[in-house]
Amino acid sequence: MSLVVEGLSVEISGRQIVRNVSFQVADGERVGLIGSSGSGKSMITKAILGLLPEQATVNGSIRLFGEELVGIGEEKMADLRGSYMGAIFQNPSDSLNPVLTVAQQVSLPLRLHYRLSKGQRQQRVESMLDEVGLDGHVAGKYPSQLSGGQQQRVAIATALVTSPKVIIADEPTTALDAITQRSIIDLLTCLVDRSGASLLFVTHDFAVLSRVCQRSYVIDHGDVIEGGNTQVLLQQPQESVTKELVKAARTLTLHVSNHGQ
Amino acid sequence: MWSTVEGRFALSILLVWVFMAVLSLVWTPQPLWATDGQQVWQKPSHNHWLGTDGTGADVFSWLMAGSATNLLICLLTVACAAALGILLIAATVSRSALVANTSIVLVDALISIPTVLIALILAVPLGASVVVIVLACGLGYGLNLARVARPQALLAARSDYVIAAQVSGASAGRILVSHILPNIMPVVAVQLSLSAGSSVLAESGLTYLGVGVSSGVPSWGHSLATSVKLINVYPLTALWPGLLVTLVVLSLNLFGDSIGDAIDPQSNSALREAA
Amino acid sequence: MSQHRVPLLRAQTISKFYGRGHQRRQVLDQVSLALYEGSCLAIVGGSGSGKSTLVRILLGLEASEGTVTYRGKAVEGRHSLGYQALRSEAGLIFQNPFTSLDPRWSALRSVSEPLRIHAKRLALSDEQIQQRSLAAMEAVGLDAQDFAGRFPRDCSGGQAQRIAVARAIVTRPRLLLADEPMSSLDVSARQDLIATFQKLRQDNPRTALILVSHDLGVVQHMADRILVLHNGRVQEEGTTNQVLSHPTSAYTRALLEAVSQ
Q: Which of C102, C106, C164 lies nearest to residue B275, judging by beta carbons?
């Protein structure tokens, strides 16, 4: 098992945001967390990444390849974050440092976690940018000079450059338009599979989830209310919250008779 | 703002200040001009609570009378700074690019002139007086206010809710008063209370330099200036006004911090619930 | 049917450039459109297509080459008749309710502001303003008593967007412009807001709506006509059915491809 979460609870200033959540991600598996905004799904990923605000109290257990992450301290956590875990967030213009060029941004995790020569680092960054479909002349640009889709590609390159074993993606395509959204999702799943890593994918949209994840958990009010094969959840949702999410996704999917012949 | 220790402390000190200033207009423990050549540089006693100075005048009475002058300077300076600062901010967010750019250049150019220099220049035609302090500080702090509040004012001016107001047909003045000023109020309040503190310090400094309040007018700067010459021999006499100035400046700064929190619904849940 | 009437809003050969010298780039190229009373036109395009600029030009907030007319009167400059008419008859809804509502204003104050601006001209008393504002909040499906005193940050994204919609409709506008009103909301909230818009259109059959969106899933439920914008050019225009089932431009086909399962 890459990632095992057991009885995870998060409380922030007296408010229970995550309640007794348990799930697991097998090696090389792509698992989804789905819920509407405010359901606490992002708090779960923050707890895993050790990025919760200081006043938060975390109970339960999060194990990464058998190693307990709850209460290990910021220094060790920071080390694990870069080398074993990679993270991609919703808004690339927020998550990329505006004063770093694309090449500097992507090489940052390498500098922090590996002792590589300048040449080796440069080579790794170039091949990573190539993998996410960005050509060489982007390397010297700043985030503000890129489109939203290009920015998210840079964020993916930054998350994957250290070849992490677990990748956590929190609504990585929500801010993008439909065409870009599709290409980013396909790129992410393809790269994750190629590197053999596992993926924890957070979204509010079943339409996206069904394309990315074999298995999913539905989160509501900080609770896992349902889980299982994504297709089964889509076909036979049991809980009313799941039914609502499936219905919304179906309504908002395009229904046209005969397009593009 | 009463809810925090800092807020309570600051507010108490400031209230005592205002009370003393008002009281000094009608009563002081000893008459100000009751000097006694036999009783100079006295230690604190029953008659002279904080001792006497080099002319034998009662230190406590002079500090009390000075608090009125300093309060006046403080209020006038803040009023000047607020008026100038808000005028400049209004120009900065103007829809006319010419007005906006002119105000920005003007602020950036004038802000580089030190307040002391302005005071020295003003003292040439005006002589040493309260007006010099108020004008010099008001100008300097007003420019500072415009500069510090500029980014937030521009952010508010370019926000979607201002566009929404424009689309609804709101006039520029209405947008300034109802959207932009309230949104920069925390910054303005903090900046103005810092200015109030600085004006107390500036009064002491400028009076010491001889361009502040004219000699004979009681003020904390005056008390400091007359006692500081013999600080090696009679440290206590210079300590009192120094301590007072420090205490008041500290309170004004703490007051600024708490008022910033108190009027900001983002950080004040009580205010949100009250509305 | 509506083609014989005078359009409520018409834009003819709108072109817009940003920057100067060799940095000059064209964001809109000869865009024309017509909007009739009671209809809903969707302007569909990805990020960088120029759609948001077009909205600003239509509202007279930005100058451009070409002409915009409202009820046959030119919208050019703050003193033109068209601009004045637009000001009292248009409502605007933004993508992000948290930036389009003043964070220091309660919901009731935000919603009632457009009425208070015109209180003298419309001869409205404070009581009438309050009543109409509360009614507007009810019309968008908010419990007015509960929400009147709430600040944006005490609301979910969907609730805050409803407040923004209430503000836009409180003056009973003849023209509503919604710039990506759904894209910051999760799917359930999107679905609810679509229903709200449908109800609003039923209740106010003469109000015309311009919906700017990249999401064809949303557009199919709301628009009568679609105008596809890409790189500042109109790619195609037609009825919703026509465009979705028989797209003529390559860009539209790519867009449809991206959202199909």
A: C106
- Any domain includes A23: no
- Shortest Cα–Cα distance, C256 to chain B (Å): 31
Q: Identify whether A245 is part of a domain.
A: yes
Tell if the CB–CB gap between C157 and A252 is shorter than 8 Å: no
Are C87 and B167 within 8 A, CB to CB? yes
Q: Closest Cα to residue A204, out of A177, A257, A241, A238?
A: A241
| C50 Cβ neighbours under 8 A, 6+ residues apart | C16, C27, C28, C31, C229, C231, C232
The residue-averaged pLDDT of A252-257 equals: 72
The answer to the question of residue A213 being in a domain is yes
Q: Which CATH number fits domain B58-267: 3.40.50.1820, 1.10.3720.10, 3.10.129.10, 1.20.1440.170?
A: 1.10.3720.10
What CA–CA distance (Å, rounded) separates B199 from B70? Answer: 8
Residue A53's pLDDT is what? 84
The tokens describing A140, both together, are: 């010297």
Chains that touch C (3 or more CB pairs under 8 A): A, B
What's the DSSP call for residue A49? H
Q: How many CB atoms lie within 10 A of CB B87?
A: 13
User: Tens digits of per-residue pLDDT, A196-206?
Assistant: 999 999 999 89
How far from C188 is each of A208, B186, C53, C67, CA to CA, in Å? Answer: 14, 37, 29, 39
Nearest-CA residue of chain C relative to B166?
C87
Residue C17 φ then ψ, to 5°: -120, 145
Residues A179, A176: Cα–Cα separation, whole Å: 8
Residue of B nearest to C116 (CA): B170
Domain range for A224 is 28-40+72-251
Angle at Cα B23 formed by Cα B17 and Cα B27, nearest 5°? 135
Residues of A in CB contact (< 8 Å) with C are 36-38, 147-149, 175-183, 204-207, 210-211, 244-245, 247-249, 251-260
Ranges of residues in chain C whose predicted pLDDT is under 50: 1-2
State whether residue C122 sits within 8 Å of chain B by CB.
no
C100 closest CB neighbour out of B161, B178, B265: B161
Q: Which run of H or E residues covers position C177?
A: strand C175-179
Q: What pLDDT sits at residue B268?
A: 54
Q: Quick check: C114 and B169 CB within 8 A? A: yes
Look at A178 and C216 and tell me if their CB atoms are within 8 Å: yes
- Mean of pLDDT values over B48-61: 84
**Nearest-by-CA chain C residue for A179:** C258
What's the CA gap between B257 and B196, in Å, rounded? Answer: 13
Contact yes or no for B168 and C114 at CB 8 A: yes
Paired with C141 in beta bridges are none
Which stretches within chain C are classed as H helix?
A: 51-58, 81-89, 97-100, 107-117, 119-122, 126-139, 144-147, 157-169, 187-203, 216-222, 240-245, 250-259
Predicted local distance difference test score (pLDDT) of residue B233: 83
Q: What are the boundaries of each domain within chain B?
A: 58-267
Identify whether the C-beta of residue C36 lies closer than 8 Å to the C-beta of residue C208: yes
Residues of C in contact with B159 (CB under 8 A): 99-100
- Count of domains in chain A? 1
Q: Residue A120: which CATH number?
A: 3.40.50.300
Residue A191 domain-assigned (yes or no): yes
Question: Which domains are assigned to chain C?
Answer: 2-259 (3.40.50.300)
Residues composing chain C: 261
